[in-house]
Write a structure and sequence with these properties.
Helix content: 25-40%
Structural class: alpha/beta
Largest sheet: 10 strands, mixed
Radius of gyration: 20 Å
Order of helices and strands: EHEHEHEHHEEHEHEHEHE
Oligomer: single chain
Strand content: 15-25%
Distance between the termini: 32 Å
Length: 272
């Protein structure tokens, strides 16, 4: 019996330039996997339009996106999938079987609402598979940065990040958000920071054994502004990875997760 093909990587396509940049990145990522790329466009037909014909701009847009994908990854199987419905509903339904969802965004410094709107945050919060929000620039030589805490989603994020970094031969930086303390009020401040670091080292030890060639470094950051702290650790990261629930991701949707998606200068992966 022939082996069933794996589900395709899904890239959302809309009218933004950000989605086209995301398509290019998604094509290159899909080419690394034994699967293809599906370009999903959510289309809403105006009431009273019974022609059943897709608007010309939708056809033109999706064909242009497919051309970008095939140019970025020659030989990659690229499928155009235009469906009626709301983008959130369609993307969440696809996340049940897809290995990865990729969504575009405005460049850092662009309008906050361009990315941090209801679609992005609802998909980030409820998707069943990892979601990468492509923004800024992805340096393939840069390290992978992952934020961890004690949440189950954080453990999945570390798993995803370690495998991603190992497969690409780049360093992994593991950051933990420690509870903010005031040294003058809490005498055990220094001891607690040392304990946080010890637990972090124990957490990554298993992954160091699994990937003996993987360079892993750890950082303990203050959780006062965890998203900004995470972004500031490694400006040249190729990917920032967080769990969907946890101090370093925030309870997406929420202000911390919102800030991370709005201000990161590289792709951000939210793992469930």
């Amino acid at each position: 019996m022939a082996e069933k093909a794996k589900a395709a990587v899904i890239a959302g396509v809309d009218a933004s330039e950000g989605s086209l940049r995301a398509v290019r990145w998604a094509a290159q990522e899909a080419a690394r996997r034994p699967t293809g790329l599906r370009l999903l466009h959510a289309c809403v037909i105006e009431p009273g339009d019974g022609s059943g014909v897709l608007p010309e701009h939708v056809t033109r847009r999706t064909r242009h996106a497919a051309k970008i994908a095939r140019t970025a990854a020659p030989g990659l199987e690229v499928e155009i999938d235009v469906r009626l419905g709301l983008a959130v509903d369609l993307l969440l339904a696809e996340s049940v079987t897809a290995p990865l969802l990729v969504l575009g965004s405005q460049r850092p410094g662009g309008p906050r609402g361009a990315l941090v709107g209801s679609v992005a945050l609802r998909v980030a919060a409820a998707a069943k598979c990892p979601v990468v929000f492509f923004r800024g620039h992805a340096d393939p030589r840069g390290p992978v940065l992952v934020g961890v805490d004690s949440s189950p989603a954080s453990a999945e994020a570390l798993h995803f990040a370690a495998d991603w970094a190992a497969a690409r031969g780049v360093p992994l930086v593991v950051a933990h958000a420690a509870r903010r303390r005031t040294p003058s009020i809490e005498p055990s401040f220094t001891d607690q920071r040392a304990e946080d670091r010890r637990k972090l080292e124990e957490l990554v030890a298993g992954w160091a054994r699994k990937h003996p060639r993987l360079e892993i470094t750890t950082r303990v950051v203050d959780d006062g502004e965890p998203a900004r702290a995470l972004i500031g650790i490694t400006p040249g990261a190729q990917l920032i990875v967080v769990g969907s629930r946890g101090r370093l991701a925030g309870a997406l949707p929420g202000s911390t997760g919102n800030d991370l998606l709005a201000h990161a200068t590289c792709p951000v992966a939210v793992v469930h």
